[in-house]
Amino acid sequence: MKILINAFLLLPLLAFADESAPRARDLGIPFDGNPGEYNAITDVPGVTVGFETIIADLDDNKAVRTGVTAILPRGVQTNQQPVFGGWFSLNGNGEMTGTTWVEESGLIEGPIMITNTHSVGAVHEGTIRWRFENGAADSSGYWWSLPVIAETWDGYLNDINGFHVRPAHAAAAIESAQSGPVAEGNVGGGTAMNCFEYKCGTGTSSRVTNAAGQTYTVGVLVQANFGRRDELIVAGAPVGKHLRNDMVFSGDSTDDTETGSIIIVVGTNAPLMPHQLKRLTRRAALGLSRTGSIAGNGSGDIFIAFSTANAQASQASTGVSIDTFANEDIGPLFRATVQATEEAITNALIAGRDMTGNRGNSVKGIDHDRLKAILRDYNRLVED
């Protein structure tokens, strides 16, 4: 076995943004709303993101192209301080563990993890072990954990049935998490993911907005692995119609069904209650639809949201007060979620780089110059 890259051991900087890699706005693609400093989910104060990327060439023409993504809502305090949360399944052909307890308790306890479909168990074990080794028992004196682990399928480019993601990779992703710029495209759980039949993967964006007289941030991170080429919409333009004859998969796909998936994580520092966060996740579906998704029968479109406000809300016997947000004032946060979701998906598409993987299968990234030419024809390109 020849190891080409192990991001945690050899190239830890893969956890962070490649400053030379263009993002959607760098190409002149216009979006509504005002992004935060990094235009990433880490613009929400306290949120950190980490990756473990595993790339290896194996015998018998097999290859490993996979990984793990970790979102820590409260950074280093995530293990000790749960966040209010809500989740929503637009179409349920996928997995997100722990959501029964999120629904019941209104809390997300620990990191939010994303990986490939057949590695949920390993990441689940690794996350619980990390929480146990870095935390303490609850007020009852017992230690237990129901972490949130989500997935999309990467079996075209990755030897998914080789079970190459192990519990230690989950811990490595958590340990690497930090604030600041976030890597996109072929990284972490998004390493081998494809969207609209182009190389895709991890993407993120944020919006700063005014609501109820205060300034708040909404950040989104996606693992995008969905969509047919014909359906692709960028900045309102039907660019997929002009790219339908591109061969981007080796042995180009002729299947006209939507079988992909997307995980969307929404974070905010606005003081929202669990039922309001569930409302926020539903608005993420509108941002998804702006890119052309129809959430097909075989698609797993599962979303989760959290609020970093009310840090002490889960503490027992403390009599703490909880800040709330009036439903009548929530509109700007809905808008911010839709806008940031659309841009995060587009960023994932723009960041996707050509990749050859398992059994020699390959997927190309979208041609930036061709995309810009199409957008220019629709007067949807911002140029100096």
Describe the fold and architecture.
The protein is α+β, with helices and mostly antiparallel strands. It has one domain: L-amino peptidase D-ALA esterase/amidase. About 20% of the residues lie in helices and about 25% in strands. The strands form 4 sheets. It has a 6-stranded mixed beta sheet with strand order 5-4-13-12-11-10, sandwiched between helices. It is globular, with a radius of gyration of 20 Å. The N and C termini lie far apart (about 50 Å).
Mind describing the biggest β-sheet?
6 strands, mixed
Q: What is the ordering of alpha helices and beta strands?
A: EEEEHEEHEHEEEEHEHEHEEH
Rounded to the nearest angstrom, the distance between the terminal CA atoms is 49 Å
Estimate the helix proportion, in percent.
Answer: 10-25%
CATH superfamily: L-amino peptidase D-ALA esterase/amidase
